[in-house]
Amino acid sequence: MHPEWQKISNDFIKATSYAIGDLEEGWAAKYDFANRPPTYLRYEEALVRIPLGKPDFSASPPLWELLQQRRSRRNFLKTPMTLNELNVLLWATQGITADMGDYQIRTVSSAGALYPIETFMLINNVEGLASGLYHLDVEQWCLEGLKLEDVTEIAYRFTENQEMTRRSAVNFVWTAVVERTRSKYKERAYRYIWWDVGHVAQNLHIAANALGLGVCTIGHWFDKEMNEYLGIDGTEHLSVLMASVGKVEGKDWLHDRRPS
């Protein structure tokens, strides 16, 4: 590792570390949910809004079998995903499961139930959907079409030519609205954001494997270009993780593992 990069990493850990006595007693419990930043993001100017409704949950293998068989698979077929399959994946990663009054609980845990993670999708091949850039409106549970265009080469270029991104049915791009978490957890917020998106990604892996789909998380992309394409500033709202999903043969993990 370059010495300067190591210093930046060490400085971050040091600046966001606590010792006993550093914090005011009970500070986290005093957080005012009523005056928190907006939990939900909506694009009123979206080109299309597609209601998703309640997903149809098909039978799946037992949880322990899913965990035993979980693998990253990315040798995607040209077969499209169904809209219901996409809906199931979205519900598994962002679905609201309970209303607590001041806040709502989802299928994934989040530090302080603040849910900073937003879901964007570069859609290549989903039945009933035009190709393009979409955003999930969690509160109204619908897809917002932001750019209706061929995004195959955009995903490929922004991930430095990772072949799975042009072959996948959907490329998820998760972003973080930093102030949602920072308003409560201050400098510690960035640690919690990575934690939150990790929960989201793991749920995607489990749900996709339950549906017999291939999924692979992506940690390498060009942040500047991706943030610009999504229309976010890269500081207060930034891309934090990606994943590709699509149909695979599903007979042999080693065959499904790499694009052939």
Features:
about 260 residues; alpha+beta; NADH Oxidase; 7-stranded antiparallel beta sheet; two-stranded antiparallel sheet; globular; oxidoreductase activity; Bacteriocin_Proc_Enz; SagB/ThcOx family dehydrogenase; SagB-type_dehydrogenase
How is this structure best described in words?
- By secondary structure, the chain is of the alpha+beta class.
- The chain has a single domain (45-256), classed as NADH Oxidase, CATH 3.40.109.10.
- It is 33% helix and 21% strand.
- It contains nine helices and nine strands.
- The chain has a seven-stranded antiparallel beta sheet, with helices on both faces.
- α3 (83-94) runs antiparallel to α7 and α6 crosses α7 (189-210).
Kindly summarize this structure in a few lines.
This is SagB/ThcOx family dehydrogenase. The chain has 260 residues and is α+β, with helices and mostly antiparallel strands.
* Secondary structure tally, helices: 9
**Mean pLDDT rating:** 93
CATH superfamily: NADH Oxidase
Poorly predicted runs are none
The helix content, as a percent range, equals 25-40%
Structural class: alpha+beta
Approximate shape? globular
Indicate the CATH topology. Answer: NADH Oxidase
Tell me the strand percentage band.
Answer: 15-25%
SSE order in H/E notation?
Answer: HEHHEEEEEHHEHHEHEH
Q: Characterize the main sheet.
A: 7 strands, antiparallel
